[in-house]
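Page 47, continued from p. 46.
Same chain as before, 329 aa.
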Amino acid sequence: MTTITPTSKWHKNILDLDNFTRADIDSVMQTTDAMKEIMQRDIRKVPALRGKTIITLFYEASTRTRVSFEQAGKILSADVINVTAQSSSISKGESLIDTGKTLQATGADIIVIRHPSSGAAYLLAQNVNCNVINAGDGWHAHPSQALLDLYTIREKLKRLDNLKVTLVGDVLHSRVARSNIWGLLNVGAEIVLCAPPTLLPKIFIEAYPHNGKGSLTIEYDVNKAVKDADVIMALRLQTERQQSGLLPSLGEYSERWQITPKRLELAKPGVMLMHPGPVNRGVEVSSELVEHESSVIEEQVKNGVAVRMALLYMLLAGSKPNETSLAHS
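Result:
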């Protein structure tokens, strides 16, 4: 069995992957291996975070992210408290900073926050002493999603470097895409971004200096973008993009950018088809591909729990992982 031996101080907060090193990413991957072993036991419970309090503070609706953080905390024996904007003093006009300080005063060790405004997680982290995990802020970042995507790729393809990863969809408004770009560049991937020009201006890639690690290019022709890809990640298309005039119609989008069986054949044999969810069947991905043998969408959800267990543990342990052992409770 594996766990963690403290070797050095780790991150205090997880706000995005732009400040993660390759060693940090490898540490999360290794720790997630240990967490997956726990999840495969008959009794999925360990006392690793007993006595710790994790608060999920969600200003937006969520299923996968919120449930997986809650499940992760409970498997590690932490006390998990859910707070929503609708059922708290937030609905009475309380500021984010005051809400964060209130939760800290009640004994929160970690606050997991989702917020519609980019930068909200950073603002919270600057004003509380407890650990903060960004579970999605506006269009900006979703680091735990990117880490579970990296873990899923590593699990199936047995490596992270020298892979062609194509992201197709609403890149401009995707916090998932942004965090994945940082993570994939860090591990040396060849990243191709593909979307309608209104959802992917060429200037987009100028925000990602990567010091020679990996590559980042734009290709507006989806058939060229997916050719010889090891991984295809379809991004969710938000219907309000059509209403705002960025797309002529969902039908045209589906015809020109949907991942179909024919387009999947252009990729490498054994290609992985990913999607952060929820999937708009028949829009970003053909309905028949959601359960196709190439699809790892369900595995992404399962791995999300293990990755978030690793992040919670590593934040509160304040360390990078080494080989040791997580005992049964």
